[in-house]
Amino acid sequence: MAATSKVVRPPQSPGALQWLRENLFNNLLNSLLTVISLAVILFTLAGAFRWVFFTANWEPISNNPLLYLVGQYPRDDLWRLGVGLVLSSFLFGGSWRVWGGVLRTLAFTYALFLLAGVLWPLQAETLTLTMRAFLLANLVVIYLGFAFAGFKFVRPLSVLFGWVFTLIITLVLLHGISSVAFLPDVSTGLWGGIMVTLILAIGGITLSFPIGVLLALGRRSSLPVVTIFSTAFIEVIRGVPLIGILFLSSIIVPLFLPPEVRIDRLLRALLGMTLFSAAYTAENVRGGLAAVPPGQVEAAKAIGLNNFQITILIVLPQALRAVIPPIVGQFISLFKDTTLASGVAVLELLSVGRSILQANPQYIGLQTEVYLFIAAVFWILSYLMSYASQRLEVALGVGQR
Amino acid sequence: MTSRHSGINQVQFRSEIPFWRDERVLRIAAQVISAILIIGFIIWSVDNVIKATAQRGLSLGFGFLNESAGFPIGETPIPYDPSRSFAYAFVVGVLSTLKVAILGVVFTTLLGTLVGLMRLSSNWLISRIALAYVEIHRNIPLLVLLFLWYRGVFLKFPRVQESITWPGPIFINQRGLYMTWPRLTSTGTIFLTASTAGILLAIIAFIWLRKVREVTGRPTYFGLTSLAILILFPLVGWFLAGGNPITFDIPQLSGFNFQGGVHLTPEFTALLIGLVTYTAGFIAEVVRAGIQAVNRGQLEAARALGLNYSQLLGLVIIPQALRVIIPPLISQYLNLTKNSSLAFFIGYPELFFIGKTTINQAGRAIQVFVLVMLVYLIISLLTSMILNTYNRRIQFIER
Questions:
Q1: Which residues on chain A are in Cβ contact (under 8 Å) with B289?
Q2: Does the pLDDT at position A3 exceed 60?
Q3: ipTM of the predicted structure?
Q4: Tens-place pLDDT, residues A51-84
Q5: Which stretches of chain B score pLDDT less than 70?
Q6: Does any CB of chain A come closer than 8 Å to the CB of residue B156?
Q7: A34–B125: do the CB atoms touch at under 8 Å?
Q8: pLDDT 10s digits, B36-54
Q9: Phi and psi (nearest 5°) for B247?
Q10: CB pairs below 8 Å between A and B: how many?
């Protein structure tokens, strides 16, 4: 038997035609479906295109960019937000350098938002040339941050601290300090727009996360009293709609407080969002806690760690890594749920849109445009969050080990 | 050797640990302290309320529920007028919520399953369309969707005189949908009885004949037999009824409005469409994940056994996929029910809306709030009870 060696060509990547045949026209039914859905898509897209560019009147949006951004926040005091913006730009650049990957995408999107502000239709006079120049300058600041983070002494942890610092300083500036002459108090009744939406979302997330972890630990605690209270809290909150909780924190809680105690309206809404989100976070974290193998706790006990150390050093790191996807999902829904705060007279993005429609008779009949714009803003931001979470999962190797 | 041992023996072991380090004492102390803190907080806040209400001369009782409500309700599933009591208005709200929830659950299951199956289609275009649907609906707040449907679509329909006509006929205008609806004539009950009997008999025949087949192995044609019953009985009923058991009630434009047919208000329709399309985005992912969770080996084994496609689906894939699908599906149903409270924003009078109206009318914010939240809580707890029972039932029995 003579060994005949035949050189076989490696399989080629399928060509475009081959791909079409395999994925769109592999049998009669599929071919039919392809043709029909293609027709439907083309028809819909053509209609949507015509509507967006020719029929729709985007004036309620293009004329009021500042209202959507900050609501009625005093225009003379906008520099306070500007400080926060500069710090954020710097940190976005730095985060991009330090972490790369997802943060690069986020920094790019942030830069795109700034650019959108720079190039916003010029007839919107409220967005002055100075502001546009400022937004453009922020692009440079992003680059500065990127360059600065190249120094050896910049650690990921310092960037993280930078973010926390920025968050606090921005909030303090926005609110004002009554004892400082050039920082008069700005009532939260004047805050509005995307600014308030982000404050509710970021505030709710940062506050609800630790509370949620504590509740989850409480529910799994071996102390019956703690378990009962935690379980009752979690189940009651999860059993009622968010609008009910917001209503509770805005209208009912003040009744339960002594008359001299007054809590700010925005803060009350934030309280409601936090309590609601904490209960859901707790349930997610509980799932993660259950997934930590008991051997880990036993090993930790064997090397002499006390209960507190076991929880902080052994159990929580493993539990939290396992529950990143559901927790990010919870944060996304918290972000979307900030719209409900409009029901308790907080002027977040959606209610700004509604009040613009109500206050201007010339915008009658333009509801579709306004709500589509708001939907688009939410869509972009939530999609970014879910994209970031998917990348984070891959980076942390969730489910890999 | 002995000297070393004696050195150890001289150490005095204290038999009792000081109480501040005794775990038994610490555990009890921690519980007592947390109980005192929480209960103390509750007592303090309740005391505040009692003081405040006493100052304003109000009561915390529920006696007001028997007073006349005095406010009209736009649409009600049961007859209502403002002279009825607050309690009755509250029941109207509960029924409206249940109506939206039940209809919503049915439609969202159908749409969600369809989109979920489309996601798994081997046709690239179809699966992309489904993906686009899911991504759009999962990343937009439900409230924005509701406003889009209600103010952006339904309130922008033409006036009554210029109604859009769809086949059916269905008339669409600013005041909602007017649909043609089948109604029973005087002989209709005969047809209805025959049909009901047919459905029941078909189910019984199906179960019984299949059992016979499983036990004896004889072919019983259980599918065909029950199908025949299902068709024959209503047909006989139709003829017995003289061929006209049903008339179609077609809406007629008279004056400034439509008469007859079934009227769906824009509020109700927008709410239902918003809830259904939004929840379907989530259910689609649940269905997709459930079907993908079925082990590939199961499929291959079923093919190797020679099962045909419908057997493969009915006997292998669906039973295993349902095990994964049902729990998250039920929690989506629960979400839909709770989300129906957003009707408050577009003015469909369900439980939350009527609760808010009652508070405006009668004050008594705390009592009304507690009642409304209790209803949602009961629905939730009932659902999770059903879910837990189901989960216990379907646990894999591991050998």
A1: none
A2: no
A3: 0.89
A4: 999 888 898 888 888 899 999 898 888 899 999 9
A5: 1-15, 395-399
A6: yes
A7: yes
A8: 999 999 999 888 888 888 8
A9: -115, 155
A10: 150
B152–A368 CB contact, under 8 Å: yes
Task: State how far the Cα of A204 lies from the Cα of A207, in Å rounded to an integer.
Answer: 5
Give me the residue spans of the domains in chain B.
Answer: 2-47, 88-152+272-394
pTM of the model: 0.87
Q: What is the mean pLDDT of residues A12-39?
A: 82
Render pLDDT for A222-252 as a digit per residue (tens, 0 to 9). Answer: 888 999 999 999 999 999 999 999 999 998 8
Residue A184: phi and psi, rounded to 5, are -65, 155
* B234 prior amide bond cis, ω within 30: no
Q: B32: which chain A residues are within 8 Å (Cβ-Cβ)?
A: 225
List residues bridging with A348 in a β-sheet. Answer: A193
Cα–Cα distance, A180 to A169 (Å, whole number): 15
Interface touch B123/A23, C-beta < 8 Å: yes
Whole-number Cα distances in Å, A140 to A81, A90, A129, A134:
18, 9, 17, 10
- Strand partners of residue B70: none
**CB pair distance less than 8 Å for A252 and B143:** no
CATH no. of B88-152+272-394: 1.10.3720.10
Distance between CA A101 and CA A48 in Å, rounded?
A: 34
pLDDT at residue B329, rounded to an integer? 92
Q: Which residues of A touch B30 (CB under 8 A)?
A: 223, 226
- Report H helices in chain B: 2-9, 23-55, 86-119, 124-138, 142-147, 188-216, 222-240, 266-292, 296-304, 309-311, 318-339, 343-346, 351-362, 365-394
Give the DSSP letter string of B263-279. Answer: EE-HHHHHHHHHHHHHH
